[in-house]
Amino acid sequence: MNVRIPGLLLSYTNGAKNVELRVAPAAPTLADALEALNERYPGMRFRVVDEQGAVRRHIKIFVDGVLARDLATPVRPEGELMIVGALTGG
Amino acid sequence: MATGTRKGASAARRTKGAGLLIATRKGLWTLASDAARRTWKLAGPQFLGNVVHHAVQDPRDRKTLLVAARTGHLGPTVFRSTDRGRTWKEATTPPAFKPGGARSVDHTFWLTPGLASQPGVWYAGTSPQGLFRSTDGGATWAGVDGFNEHPKRKDWCGGDQDGTPDGPKLHSILVDPRDAKHLYIGMSGGGIFESTDAGGNWHPLNQGVRADFFPDPYPEYGHDPHCMRMHPLLPDRLYHQNHCGIYRLDRPATRWTDIGAAMPKSVGAIGLPMVLHPRDPDTLWVFPMDGTSVWPRVSPGGKPAAYRSVNGGRTWQRQAAGFPAAQAWWTVKRQALTADDAATVGVYFGTTSGEVWGSRDEGRTWKCLARHLPEIYAVEST
Q: What ipTM was reported for this prediction?
């Protein structure tokens, strides 16, 4: 699947704005995708999801264009994940 | 993992002169002086845009740096450098509570290196109140269960509404240089606690400390210590600046002495930071702020001043030579007052308005070393 990386996480991907990710399980979820992402880029998951599995307050994750707050959301191996940092400032 | 060299700054230690790590709401800067501490050079930023709550140099090797950072969007983490800030690596397991609970770390607030006999050991305090330990120089962190999972922790700490305006915090992690198992912590709110078994169990240590925001102004816990210090050469001597005054404790006594009562009534004894003379256990500095009415948290009357005691808090002297005489409405946060170890001690602080001030004569005269920085959260001497 394709993962679109926001500017605030480009330090993890060496500047790559799109990452092709292979998600192993037969019925993958957003949690699986984030775990795969974290295996490739250690530390990235904790910056966007807290230790209780909640997507952080100012992070939005879209699965195939639909906002997902639940890590159990199904993802498609050929689908798209978009991570966005939004609505914080000061 | 975020790695690599960051251009534009180096936290390299000078072989002579003093150095400061300046943690701000928008990144990390450094200041380095000439041997006489007359001229200073500002370098940075590093981690631009990150909220840097604390940056600390490891006194055991004087080249390892740890930085507690987060951004407005991203979760909290710890960055490590082993080459005096030239390159950085992110912790692979930053401080985080156990999954399956209700709490998540909002930010890592306080970093304390372990003793010289404990290479690689660091402690971290978080918001909300959590205590974490690393044994590998900050690469991986684990909760100190004796505190984080203590059955009374919730009673001690209260809820989020019981903390400071930007979140309840665990801070002032002190390790007894004679005994690595002997620890103190401070919490806003919660109070001061002690462990004698390396964090396995904890008991409150707040006797004599006011908490005038409770019906009982002398409760067992629930206080709001802002910053606690232990004298390195006399580890039984503790001081702390509290929400409700300034206190000294000489162990093994357990009742704090109110030394803020000797402050001028027009200034009061409320403030956030304090720092000790590195060799004289009777000398310390505080930086009072306005804690009257609605708690403006600015210099009282717009006239900033440090206060120094040379007799363990029995009397205090105002030290304001060089500061604006009026209309200066900044103050100093709890991690933003530090000292060097020169023969005539240098005292340094960062302000909420982004200025760094220093004195190379133990507070008698002050000079602005840098200005126009973001709000300063912490200043540590290197």
A: 0.85
